[in-house]
Amino acid sequence: MESFPEVITHNYDPRRGPCRNVCELSEEQAERVLDEIRASGLRAIKPNYLERRRLTEEWLIRERRRLLGPTKLERPVYFFLGDFADGKDPSRPSRLVMRLREFPPETLTFTYPDSMASLPIATRDDLRPQRKRYHGQVFTLGEIEAVVAEFGMPGERWKTDPTMKYDKFIEVQVWDDRLINERLLQVGSPLSP
């Protein structure tokens, strides 16, 4: 079985800068950003994306409070568990790869797969065939290590196993950006566009 990844990856659009969260924007600003992404043709974004994103993020925030208590950030910076600096997402060609163990465990939560897929798989009847025990849950580092030990990393199984079609990666929610900002300063990347 594949070993637990040692790095996490944040992919971003260099024109907007790293660590952006559309949920921090007003409705009008957020829709403008999403319309720009849609118009680029680099990524398909459904018309109800912002509503679903905000509902999902509210769930993440509630679960973070339950699991971790107060954190520096109210809204997370999103990463992937593992090295996703592969350039496969043309809408976010820049990347920041950091060692997972640099982050204190009390600043991290995880969903298997990404939160936008995990929550609906756990709650929608039409997605019941894909449902696994880990869907609809937010995990601490220790908990996600146990989940990966039992189920493995998503890997490429989504390509051949219909029950895994939404399980493409594990999402990391980082709730403290101090280490990220230090790294961005070291590599000379702007903290904001």
List the helices and strands and how they pair.
Layout: E1 7-12, H1 27-40, H2 49-68, E2 77-81, E3 94-99, E4 108-111, H3 115-123, H4 141-151, E5 171-174, H5 178-187
Which terms summarize this structure?
single chain; 193 residues; alpha+beta; five-stranded antiparallel sheet; globular
Question: Can you characterise this structure?
Answer:
With 193 residues, the protein is α+β, with helices and mostly antiparallel strands. The protein has one domain (12-187). It contains five helices and five strands. It has helices at 27-40, 49-68, 115-123, 141-151, 178-187; strands spanning 7-12, 77-81, 94-99, 108-111, 171-174. The protein has a five-stranded antiparallel sheet, sandwiched between helices. The chain is globular. It starts with 6 loop residues before the first strand and ends in a 6-residue tail after the last helix. The mean pLDDT is 92.
Strand content: 5-15%
Main sheet properties: 5 strands, antiparallel
In whole angstroms, how far apart are the ends? 40 Å
Computed structural class: alpha+beta
Mean pLDDT: 92
Q: How many structurally independent domains?
A: 1
Number of helices: 5
Q: Give the H and E element order.
A: EHHEEEHHEH
What low-confidence regions span 5 or more consecutive residues with pLDDT below 50?
none
Estimated helix fraction: 25-40%
Strand ordering within the main sheet: 3-1-2-5-4
Calculate Rg over CA atoms.
16 Å
Overall strand count: 5
Q: What overall geometry do the principal axes of the alpha carbons give?
A: globular
